[in-house]
Amino acid sequence: DTEVTQTPKHLVMGMTNKKSLKCEQHMGHRAMYWYKQKAKKPPELMFVYSYEKLSINESVPSRFSPECPNSSLLNLHLHALQPEDSALYLCASSRTGPPDYEQYFGPGTRLTVT
Amino acid sequence: AQKVTQVQTEISVVEKEDVTLDCVYETRDTTYYLFWYKQPPSGELVFLIRRNSFDEQNEISGRYSWNFQKSTSSFNFTITASQVVDSAVYFCALTWNTGGFKTIFGAGTRLFVKA
Questions:
Q1: Disulfide check for B44: which of A14, A30, A76, A107 has CB 3.0–4.6 Å away?
Q2: Does residue B35 register a pLDDT over 70?
Q3: Which of A45, A106, A110 lies nearest to residue B44, judging by beta carbons?
Q4: B14, pLDDT greater than 90
Q5: CA of B18, closest CA in chain A: separation in Å?
């Protein structure tokens, strides 16, 4: 199984809502990542979890809150988002911690904040 | 400063043509890793290749080949006999671990292959 799954595929939320994005992998990978990708732009790294510990937070606003309950699961909790947070949110995993191993990406969650 | 430049924003070719996507990088680190990813319209990035800074060996995988030259800080990607299914955005990425893991992607090259 070389798949990273993400749910939901699409999400529309208001600025006062609380929602969560979910990411799952069953490849035994020990590093997981969240990226944000705006239209026609490259992905931008948000968070890295290595062995279930948050190792990188790229100065992401606190309205984004990551969580890694176990080695297979990664969540991104969203609260009080702004319209400019609308983007494709990509999850990825790699065999061990960065930087050398290739990342396997999920299909993303397309988020619209109204 | 660390940087990845993909100068070609869009390339359009006819099926069966060969096409080269350029990637130039800047880094202060001696240990770093370079990657190419493909992003089809479905949105999911697909890993294509990884190279570390100590391995300048070129690689061929089917119709894909990569040319890594440290002397010119380039890591170019060639598709031979392009096919419509190759239509996608291709990203070159640089990662390093000085002061913590960092990764940056180039702006991407959108490849259109027409039948």
A1: A107
A2: yes
A3: A106
A4: yes
A5: 24
